[in-house]
Write a structure and sequence with these properties.
The protein is of the alpha/beta class. It contains 5 helices and 6 strands; from the N terminus they run βαβαβαβαββα.
Length: 165
């Protein structure tokens, strides 16, 4: 399985009044930068069989932008378990529903994505950290994992934007 993990783009700052349950949207700058970065994604991301996203606005909107760039708009699936605070076990439960998939994109939150990626790689906790709009590819033999996963690459959003140029 090729697993692509992406952190949501720049959102309204945490603690801003008026957003229940911290469900904040992307900022206009976040949308612009994500759309630019998404144009670089087809150069490094194989068309996903499924795009799993947290239901929070900032992650869902990021997933929709990525899906459009990858021509996979109908592949977006909301996964409640990927809400902020998700544990590595929650990610594995969601992935288990798609164990025959070859390419899976997950859009979520930090530090949850970093903890999950680090656990897959059998690395120390928080070994992998994601910038807003950051993306990594991790390969492994499938579910349940038989061997350690392999980090193929970990890209900053700035690099994705450069790929689009």
């Amino acid at each position: 399985m090729r697993l692509f993990l992406m952190r949501h783009a720049i959102a309204v700052p945490r603690g801003t009044p008026g957003y229940p349950k911290d469900d904040r949207p992307l900022t206009p700058a976040g949308i612009k930068k994500m759309k630019e970065a998404a144009l670089g994604m087809p150069k490094v991301v194989q068309k996903p069989d499924v795009i799993l996203t947290s239901p929070f606005k900032r992650a869902l909107h990021t997933a929709q932008i990525a899906a459009k760039a990858l021509k996979a708009e109908k592949k977006v699936k909301i996964a409640q378990k990927l809400s902020p605070g998700a544990r590595p076990e929650d990610f594995m439960e969601e992935l288990a529903k798609y164990k025959t998939a070859k390419n899976v994109l997950i859009v979520g939150h930090e530090p949850d994505l970093g903890k999950f990626a680090s656990a897959l790689l059998e690395a120390r906790p928080n070994f992998i950290e994601f910038r807003k709009g950051g993306l990594c590819r991790i390969d492994w033999d499938g579910l349940p994992p038989q061997n350690s996963a392999r980090l193929v690459w970990h890209l900053k959003p700035k690099f994705l934007r450069r790929l689009a140029e």
